[in-house]
Amino acid sequence: MDNQEELRRQRRALKEEIEAADLGAGAPRTEPPREAFQGAGAFQSAGARLRDRKPVAPDLDMVLDIPVRITLEVGGADMPIRDLLQLHQGAIVELDRQAGEPLDVLVNGTLVARGEVVVVEDKLGIRLTEVVSPAERLQSLR
């Protein structure tokens, strides 16, 4: 029973210290009585370390080498299976984009940019004309 009462007293004292620290530097602090528990200095220094701790920036090095799939979307079309089965070599499928409209650049299926097709040394490429904002990217995920 004596140990439980001692633990309760220590918890109360620690709670008071934390509440006082949360009020800020200008607020009066109520120090727990030194006889409340042994090792008060350790709790006080731990509280100071927590208050003074600066947030650590995330270490992105872990994810920089993860491969992703970049896809360029020219356009799309909706059609019934009956029409799809009747397609033959040379058939033309009308897409839902206008000529000259920018292509969508998707990374793992998420829209990240728009751009136009360019030719670089006999290879196709894309020149980014617009990078999608983070808010717009979140919208496309929903």
TrEMBL record:
Domain Flagellar motor switch protein FliN-like C-terminal: 62-132
Taxonomic superkingdom: Bacteria
InterPro entries: FliN, FliN-like_C, FliN/MopA/SpaO, FliN_T3SS_HrcQb, SpoA-like_sf
Primary site of residence: membrane
Keyword Membrane tagged: yes
The keyword Transport appears for this protein: no
Location of this chain's protein in the cell: Cell membrane; Bacterial flagellum basal body
Alphabetical keyword list: Bacterial flagellum, Cell membrane, Cell projection, Chemotaxis, Cilium, Flagellar rotation, Flagellum, Membrane
Membrane topology designation: Peripheral membrane protein
Protein purpose: FliN is one of three proteins (FliG, FliN, FliM) that form the rotor-mounted switch complex (C ring), located at the base of the basal body. This complex interacts with the CheY and CheZ chemotaxis proteins, in addition to contacting components of the motor that determine the direction of flagellar rotation.
Family to which this protein belongs: Belongs to the FliN/MopA/SpaO family.
PANTHER family listed in its UniProt record: FLAGELLAR MOTOR SWITCH PROTEIN FLIN, PTHR43484
Protein name as it appears in the record: Flagellar motor switch protein FliN
Source taxonomy: Bacteria, Pseudomonadati, Pseudomonadota, Gammaproteobacteria, Cellvibrionales
